[in-house]
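In practice, a research group might receive sequence data for several interacting partners and want a quick structural hypothesis before committing to experiments. The following worked case mirrors that situation: the sequences arrive first, and a predicted assembly follows.
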Amino acid sequence: MDPSKLDQCQFREASTERFREAIPAVVNDLVQSCNTEACFDHVDTEPIPSRDAIVKIIHMALRILYPGYFTKIRVDSTNLHYYLGQEVTTLFEAISEQATLAIRHECLRHDLPCIHCGERGQEIAADFIRNLTNLRKILATDVRAAFEGDPAAKGYDEIIFSYPGLFAINIYRIAHALFGMKVSLVPRIMTEYAHSLTGIDIHPGARIGESFFIDHGTGVVIGETTEIGKHVRIYQGVTLGALSLPKEKVEELRYQKRHPTIEDEVIIYSGVTILGGETVIGARSVIGGNVWITESVPPDTRVLTKKAELIFREKEK
Amino acid sequence: MDPSKLDQCQFREASTERFREAIPAVVNDLVQSCNTEACFDHVDTEPIPSRDAIVKIIHMALRILYPGYFTKIRVDSTNLHYYLGQEVTTLFEAISEQATLAIRHECLRHDLPCIHCGERGQEIAADFIRNLTNLRKILATDVRAAFEGDPAAKGYDEIIFSYPGLFAINIYRIAHALFGMKVSLVPRIMTEYAHSLTGIDIHPGARIGESFFIDHGTGVVIGETTEIGKHVRIYQGVTLGALSLPKEKVEELRYQKRHPTIEDEVIIYSGVTILGGETVIGARSVIGGNVWITESVPPDTRVLTKKAELIFREKEK
Amino acid sequence: MDPSKLDQCQFREASTERFREAIPAVVNDLVQSCNTEACFDHVDTEPIPSRDAIVKIIHMALRILYPGYFTKIRVDSTNLHYYLGQEVTTLFEAISEQATLAIRHECLRHDLPCIHCGERGQEIAADFIRNLTNLRKILATDVRAAFEGDPAAKGYDEIIFSYPGLFAINIYRIAHALFGMKVSLVPRIMTEYAHSLTGIDIHPGARIGESFFIDHGTGVVIGETTEIGKHVRIYQGVTLGALSLPKEKVEELRYQKRHPTIEDEVIIYSGVTILGGETVIGARSVIGGNVWITESVPPDTRVLTKKAELIFREKEK
Amino acid sequence: MDPSKLDQCQFREASTERFREAIPAVVNDLVQSCNTEACFDHVDTEPIPSRDAIVKIIHMALRILYPGYFTKIRVDSTNLHYYLGQEVTTLFEAISEQATLAIRHECLRHDLPCIHCGERGQEIAADFIRNLTNLRKILATDVRAAFEGDPAAKGYDEIIFSYPGLFAINIYRIAHALFGMKVSLVPRIMTEYAHSLTGIDIHPGARIGESFFIDHGTGVVIGETTEIGKHVRIYQGVTLGALSLPKEKVEELRYQKRHPTIEDEVIIYSGVTILGGETVIGARSVIGGNVWITESVPPDTRVLTKKAELIFREKEK
Amino acid sequence: MDPSKLDQCQFREASTERFREAIPAVVNDLVQSCNTEACFDHVDTEPIPSRDAIVKIIHMALRILYPGYFTKIRVDSTNLHYYLGQEVTTLFEAISEQATLAIRHECLRHDLPCIHCGERGQEIAADFIRNLTNLRKILATDVRAAFEGDPAAKGYDEIIFSYPGLFAINIYRIAHALFGMKVSLVPRIMTEYAHSLTGIDIHPGARIGESFFIDHGTGVVIGETTEIGKHVRIYQGVTLGALSLPKEKVEELRYQKRHPTIEDEVIIYSGVTILGGETVIGARSVIGGNVWITESVPPDTRVLTKKAELIFREKEK
Amino acid sequence: MDPSKLDQCQFREASTERFREAIPAVVNDLVQSCNTEACFDHVDTEPIPSRDAIVKIIHMALRILYPGYFTKIRVDSTNLHYYLGQEVTTLFEAISEQATLAIRHECLRHDLPCIHCGERGQEIAADFIRNLTNLRKILATDVRAAFEGDPAAKGYDEIIFSYPGLFAINIYRIAHALFGMKVSLVPRIMTEYAHSLTGIDIHPGARIGESFFIDHGTGVVIGETTEIGKHVRIYQGVTLGALSLPKEKVEELRYQKRHPTIEDEVIIYSGVTILGGETVIGARSVIGGNVWITESVPPDTRVLTKKAELIFREKEK
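A structural hypothesis for the assembly, expressed as tokens:
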């Protein structure tokens, strides 16, 4: 037969075989590597919290916290009660499940029995939903703070729909509530979801007062033990972080205060870095753009960097 | 009966009841809080623009602006006409709907009657699609600018498929067209979508000339009243922002020029901050990395910060 | 007929016609513009790699590299072999397909015949999966580096589930493997996916040793020809970039080393910029926050910027 | 170049062109045929009821009529009120929309103005939901009738979950309610949905009393003007139809009684055909299998066909 | 204000209110009716087997029983083991879950404790999968019987892909296996799924030998206690049913043999009805079309109805 | 430890292991059984036509044949051309693909080379779409026949939307076109899809003239070599079949005429069976309900069965 007439398909078929033959050896290697200590796997374990389920919890909670904003269902006085009732029930169940998985995961990790994991998961969910009305009120102060702080804001709706700063604060406040109930994994997965969508990285352990506003926000980092008062406003690229530390001290610093304290009504402009657990920015102070601070600032102070001298040189054309 | 034989399921059931009982009180509180002024809700209102629908509009527009790049459907000369015809029709309808919702929302917010909302929504959509060919041409200049500005670029396709700077500019140009037609909410939701995916925050109100290139882009902020000429190139972390302003002045500054003007062929390297509505960077100037500018720069100027002195200290081991 | 009885629907209908009539002219313009050189399109061409398919490849690979972490399927010793077998087979096929598309695209772009494109695509896929066990081992060093470097880390699982730095490194290592096999488009689409979710922009061409840790990460840029040793740790806002270059030199610099070299065990704090292909940061050096470096640093050195003098001014109230 | 080396892909490409070239002429023909009277199209018209939406309405209604049976959501005394509230609201809206579309379609078809279509659609939906509790009660009699009539039934749940007869009756009763309100298209689409899943074809216009049971059901046909009393039981393959009629009489018979009347407690075994608008099967009668009836049967009668003589012939092997 | 200028939308709004007001009363009625004995609901109960999950189980099982026929995944000797391994694992889990739900449902219905429900569910799943290879072999005999019995069959693949008779037998054999393990609800939901797609209603309790063929099949009914030998062939519209019985005897007949026995190699043509638990059709007999049988037939017999005399009358034109 | 405190979860875990251990042996058996001749599998073969893809083709074709009826997209004179253009292109591609798979499957089954499979697939698709306008015209005659034949029909739209007879004829005509081009598997999968939804089983090989109407339709069987003239009307339960044949003759009858011929304007009422390849029902004849015919009927004849004598017996109460 004329080889030029050979069906390409059969040819492809043959070559497929050649390369596919690599698969079994690869699979054996991978299975083997699951039995070594070198690699990480979750084989032969209980189910773990699911990122997808946690993201759904966030959006359920937002639908409850801002009724009517994020739903395609029409909500009016006829069905508001039913709508919220169903959403709260579903949220209760979803948090129960993920919290139980997180607790069980933690128990097993520490070789503890897990007798009341399911019950504790539901207790957490009940505590969380009891706090929802309160959460609504605090978030309303954050919305107002954004409107008052940004001359580009055209109205509250624009802020609620599109401001990344508010989105990150919403999620932080949800995650912080669960962090306070010692739920593992879940709060951090929540704030990292916000981080991935906004570039704003707030650790769920931080404590932040009402009327908080972050403008633009990309690059903001707020560390685990940061404390922030009321009516604080910060801009993009602000880091509230820990001082650098030698590797051997990492372990002893876990769970200690390593991040700064920001008092009420402070404004921190873009690119500012404030480091250290003992650093306190006093109330009503204003920190100018790009300032680097590792020491405390008294209240009612304006801090600027001495301007770096600019060099204007005519461009050779 | 031996209590050790008790079915766990029934036990779980009992405890469920205990915690679920929290739900009705929570729901009542939430319903109550919707009747107060303290919280935000969209109850008893007309439907509002939908973020999901707006994101779909963006991707529809991109499929039209770059035919064949972002579709699984094969597009060739046989079906190009049909393909574009269907896409443009669908885009027309989708914009009509969201624009109408946005206009109606705005009317109701100002207690104005909404007699021609639907008609105006369609007029906007018609104007938008009439502008598509023009938009294609401008975006083609942006693609070329990226290729000329980035030595890592392997070809035009790589830029169109994967450059976040181009993605953000694409969306900005779409949103800016709608912003110019005074559509509320929608343009900002569009640019915040780009912001969330690229870390590049361009306000839809900014005016930007052709052949614009943003490299890397994370942390770029371009404020509402910024003006940018042709052939401008900027890098990650650049802020074109407003000077800080006392809270009581926020209201009077809404709608005024607060952000800088960048003339043709300017290059702005990473981390630069340029602030203020009267600040003008003259044509062909180059602003070096990390410079902080609040005053105008004449054309054909190279601006550098006097280098901060570096301290080299031998590390104690 | 009483005009007050006019059906709004019919009215809307009429106005629809008026605006929809714009569509055919728009479509003709767009079709026309596809025949000019001014615009970009992919009409009359072979299919191109699909971003959606590439994102699926990333998640398939992650499910194999961290068995049991990112799946809803229970994986235990009974089915581990089957599970990995199916995942590896599917991954092999998915990479074969996308790699073939990328190669074909490249061939056609250079007017080369594409006789062995399909075969080469499978060869690449086979090479990729052969490398999976090795990849698992390297990634395990990155997980451990994160735990050792971050006092906020509560355990390995939290890192694997939620640390954006690790996520970006995972994807970079996958993309780098394909980059090394000269697959076009795909590696960059992968790292830009990571960039969009983490704000961390690592070019797939960079070379990075084991035990690499990026904390927070937003705004990190690592250029195409960067080389990074083992046990390096970097923070948010770090740029490892190229020196600025005049437009006319862009072309000659494509494919040359333009980005710095970072040796083993270096730590680079937030906001640091290191530029230039000849810049080498010697082993075990520590670069303090916000430092701007364009020259080499010897090993075992601590580099700081001389602190800018702060100005503390009492705020007028 | 050796032609045997020609890339198959390019070859395929070429041949594609040849066949794809057929498309434009085909499209022109089809467009042309839409302008003739020969063919049916819905071009340049208002939207019409959607089969998908109508199927969703059926399943919504079933979730309300049998609370907890067909939902993945746990329904208990805590959330029953919310659950039913949301389901009823959604059902109200869905029926409003489809009923409005059906009415509008009917108006336009008769060149009538459509001023109150939307309002009438909602009135229908309100009437429908007011009837839901009543519907539940009637359907409960049907469930009980199935249990009492079928020795294979293991319990009520099995009937509700899996009996096609009950499924068809459920849908018939829903459709009949809408038929009674003169909604066009929708009721028939509903009963044909049941027909396609069960082989039971009940016209929505038929009138059927409580405690109705159909066993097996495939092939059952119940015509538009059939009347069926209470506690009637029928088997597979039963036709309650019209007498054959000459073509020229079709038009005058539209809307007249053409199908039989079945009084209370009648049993009709499989394969029976009962035809004619004046045929009445008297109460408590039993019609044996395969009987063909075109005349009335008095009450309390057992009707059998004289058995056809069977021929038993030894099979030649 | 001129009423002709009234915005239709606001008008619609008003009328909406009027009709929506019906909702709360309707919901209250429905909630009330859940507390009465008149209606059926599943409120305050454990979850019940899910029809969707059961349909998925059927298709999973079919993918295992006919490897490569019903999957988009390429199955070859490289991955056959992995493929089957994953499918069997998933099937095991899915059956475990649904069987457990069915058992629990049965326990609760009889007020029995449910201590080992979960364990028993898994035991059933394990028994089921152990039987899979055997099931494959029996089904292969059914495929061959179809090919041998139908002159229209073009090959085995056509039968496996498209013959409704085989589809119904496949599902019957799966359901019968679970029926034999006393799983409630699930087997009947399975066979009713087949019934809805094929018009073939085989009760899962029937016992059917190998090499069974049903041609066309619509309207076939095979009752719960039917017994069918090997190599039997039947056509559309065949009923193997129970004799009619007075209502008061229904209860005592539950669980007794009420349906006929069909011995090996019998052929039953279309429209035949065979009734009664004591009726036996002897081996190798052939029952001609439309015959009605309530008594036994000896082996090797051909049974015909004495042809009804046909009347040929010239049609008046 | 008190056994009553034992965590149920761990207990469940243990028992899981016990049953899951069954899996590997089962998988091995199944793999083994794939290597025997006893069972059917599609391992190590080329991809085969996909039922899902074929069902999509049907619905694509229906959207083209009845423009605007089955789409959510508004179709009007502005976009009709684009709409049909895109639908026809997509249909062309989908048929090309499935036809190619069917041809390849047939080639491989007969050990023939498959050099022009892809080209032939496209030729078939081109022929098919060229026939679409013609198909529209024939189907329009079927719609009109339904309206004229059924006094319950309220309009053409009701017929197009909901009449199962028309649905089955639509699909038959599509499938018959492909059958005529000798595409294997696909046509039968199409008509079995119609069969499963309507209970009407028309073999794609049958030849049926224009203006064909099937009322109700459940149980209709029309065999492979049936020929039906114009303006024929049939009712539910009609079989146009083959005479019974001994098993050893099955093979020689494949591909021969085995089913009846029905001439123009014949009406066949419900439950009629007409068998045999030489049976001809002459034009304009009417066959009364339940008649069983195995011989030809001259034109203009009315055929009835001599009515079986009915026995009316008073029911004992």
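Before designing any experiment, note the following. Chain C touches chain F at residues 20-21, 23-24, 27, 76, 78-79, 82 (CB under 8 Å). The radius of gyration of chain C is 26 Å.
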